Amino acid sequence: MEKFAWIMSPNKNWDDKKDLITTSLESGINHIMAKEDEIKNIKKLANTNIISNNPEAEIYLIGINGEGDNTLPLSKNLEKSKDLKDAKEHKNLGQSVAAYIEIIDKEHEHLARKLGKTVDYLILVGKDWTVIPLENILADLQSENVKIIAAVTDENEAKLALETLEIGTDGVIFEPKDFAQIKKIADLIENLSHEKYNLKEATITNVKPLGTGDRVCIDTTSMMVPGEGMLIGSYSKAMFLVHSESLESEYVASRPFRVNAGPVQAYVMVPGNKTRYLAELEAGDEVLIVNKDGTTRPTIVGRCKIEKRPLLLIEAEYEDIKIKSLLQNAETIRIVSNNGEAVSVSNLNQGDKVKVFIDENARHFGMAINETIIEK
Q1: Would you identify the CATH topology of the domain 4-192?
Q2: N or C: which end of the chain has fewer CB within 10 A?
């Protein structure tokens, strides 16, 4: 699961605040909770996302603190909560909404669960996450379409929140105090966001040259190294690990930012255990770089290049599962063998062992679902 971090605008003078916000942005943190009078200055630093009670903010914020927003006990007055009403009104206007709630008792925990069924983001504030029943809220809202964010002060609190119940919160929010704190939390987010795929060993059963088709090259904003590529295939639940162009060749120079992915109809794995058609990808989209051990990291598409090229059909089997994919018929196109080495498709033979990913679930609109879908 991809994790994320937001920051609260620091309670400092502008010069000190500016340096901390800039460091956060450079560390990949691009959501800032800010007061209305700060937004203009923050926007001058970068085109970032603001969380604020300003209706023009990218994410509209409703806030509940320890004072509560009701004169009656919250548990008896949930439907009359002005914050809940505010959230529904802005959702109806098509805005993204975040609720900021301090969990000080069972009533506020109950209200957090109620808000979590309405808002897009639920920011939970607690004095001690080892005591606050974060597990209860996570369990109750796990089937809802809401991102849960824990307010933390340091890397240790962030790690605890992000790993609670094994699933953890979707993100954390913190007030940056110094550059070291920002760096530690940003590094933690990056490490926890790496998805892991259990790659299997499949046996090549057929390699067959075909005619031409529209082939897609994915050029990313990241440099890949030998052993890295992308999961690509004609079937959304069975994919080959197609190697990047990070190796030197006597025919062309290495292009370590590129994966020659296959024809337009093929699937590629993207963050969140989802797939996209190659034809859909464009600059700014995210895809997953996968290494020979199944460890992943997200990257951004810089461009996709579609050209007519001769194609090759590759078929393999894992147990009783058949796997097919089409790739460009060229010596520089490689998939990853069972021992982690890149092997050219022009050198593939029946009986060769290669790395594949097999998904137990079928997919609908790119998302894994428990449904029978036949692909052939």
Answers
A1: TIM Barrel (3.20.20)
A2: C
